[in-house]
Amino acid sequence: MNIYRYEENPLITPMDVTPYHKNFEVIGTFNAGVTEFNGETILVLRVAERPLSKDPNIVKAPVYNPATDELEVVELKKDDTRYDFSDPRVILDKETNKFVYLTSLSYLRLARSKDGRHFTIDDKPFVYPSNIHETFGIEDPRVTKIEDTYYVYFSAISPMGVGESLVSTKDFEQTVHHGMIFSPENKDVTIFPEKINGKYYALHRPVPSATGAPQVWIAESDNLLYWGNHQFLFGLRNNMWDDGRIGAGAVPIKTDKGWLELYHGASKDNRYCMGALLLDLEDPTKIVARSEKPLLEPETSYEVEGFFGNVVFSCGVLVEGDIVKMYYGVADTSMACAELSINEVLDSLTYY
Predict the structure, then answer these.
(1) Which of 6, 42, 77, 158 is the most buried (most CB within 10 A)?
(2) Is the pLDDT reported for residue 334 higher than 90?
(3) By residue range, what is the domain housing residue 277?
(4) Tell me, what's the pLDDT at 280?
(5) Average pLDDT in the chain
C-alpha cells in the first residue's frame, strides 16, 4: 500500500504552541479531531500542559476545581511510598494500581490551515474543563458534522473515571454543552455522519473490569444524546498487531462498499498502529471486512520517539475523492498527516 507522509511532518509540535497557563509548559499537541469550516482545515487539537517544577524530587499534578473555576496544582514528593511515579503520564496508587492524578492537563484548542499543512493555533482554548467530570482534563476529540452543526465529543477525565462528553457548535466560536453521553469507563467514541434507517449510530470502547477486554461496541440513538441497544462489534486478536487494546479512530467514511472505519490497535507492548474495518452500509452492526495488517504503523523518528513513543493515533480524516488525509497524533507529542487511497485500503482488507 502506498502511504504518503507529508514532508512537513510533524505539522504541529509543542514548540509551536504557547502555554495557556502561567508557569506551565506544553508537552503535547496531538490526537486532534478534524473537519473543514469556511474553506479551512480545522484541527480540534488536544493540548497537554504540565506545571513546571524546579525541584526534581517534586512531581506536580494539575487539577481543575469546578467550585472555584480555577486550576490548582498538587505537589507530591517522589519518595512518597504510596505512589508509583514510573509512568510520566500518571501518578498511580500502589495499593489499587489505579491513577490518582495526571501529570498534565489537557484541553482543546483550534488550529487552522488554508492548505492542510501549515497551521496557526488559536491563543485561547476552544473547550476547557468546566465541571466535576472534567477535573483531570479533556482528551482525544472527534468531530462529526451533521447538516449545519459540528458535534465535538471527547474523553472527560476525573477521579470518577473516564467518560465521553459532547458539545456542539455552528461557528467554532460559541458552543453548547450537552453533558456526558457515555458514562465511565468509556472512550474512543465516533459518531456516524448521517442517520442510517432513521437512527444515529456511534462506536464506543467500554473498559470492563470484572471480565472482558477493551474492545469496540456500537450503539444507536434518536437524538445524539441518549444511546442504547448496545452491541459488541469487534474485538482483540491474539498474537496480532491489535491484541492489547483497540478503539475507534476517525469518523466512519461512507464508501460504495460500506462504512470504512479507520481504528487504532495496540499490541500488548503498547505499540499503537492504525487499521481498518468495513461495516455494512444499511446495517453497521455487521462487519464486512477487516485489516489483517496495519495500514499505518510507527516507523519515522517523530512516530517512534516522543513523550510516549511508538504511537500513531488518528481521531479524524478528510476525504477528497479517492484520497483520505489521515491526521494523526505521533508519540503522544505532535500532529502529522499521511495520505492513503481509499480503494487501496479497501483492496487490502480481508473480506468475510
Answers:
(1) 42
(2) yes
(3) 4-351
(4) 98
(5) 97
CATH of the domain at 324: 2.115.10.20
Q: Look at 66-75, 86-95, 115-124, 311-320 and tell me which has the smallest mean pLDDT.
A: 86-95
Give Cβ neighbours of residue 174 (< 8 Å, ≥ 6 apart).
Answer: none
Q: Is the pTM of this model over 0.90?
A: yes
Residue 223 pLDDT class (50, 70, 90 cuts): very high
Q: What would the mean pLDDT of 20-46 be, rounded to a whole number?
A: 97
Tally of CB atoms within 10 A around 180: 17
3-state SS of the chain? CCCEECCCCCCECHHHCCCCCCCEEEEEEEEEEEEEECCEEEEEEEEEEEECCCCCCEEEEEEEECCCCEEEEEEEECCCCCEECCCCCEEEECCCCEEEEECCEEEEEEEEECCCCCCEECCCCCECCCCHHHCCEEEEEEEEEECCEEEEEEEEEECCEEEEEEEEECCCCCCEEEEEEECCCEEEEEECCCCECCEEEEEEEECCCCCCCCCEEEEEECCCCCEEEEEEEECCCCCCCCCCEEEECCCCEEECCEEEEEEEEECCCCCEEEEEEEECCCCCCCEEEECCCCCECCCCHHHHCCCCCCEEEEEEEEEECCEEEEEEEECCCEEEEEEEEHHHHHHHCEEC
- Provide the residue count of the chain: 352
Spell out the residues 6+ positions from residue 227 whose beta carbon is closer than 8 angstroms to its own.
181, 182, 202, 204, 219, 220, 221
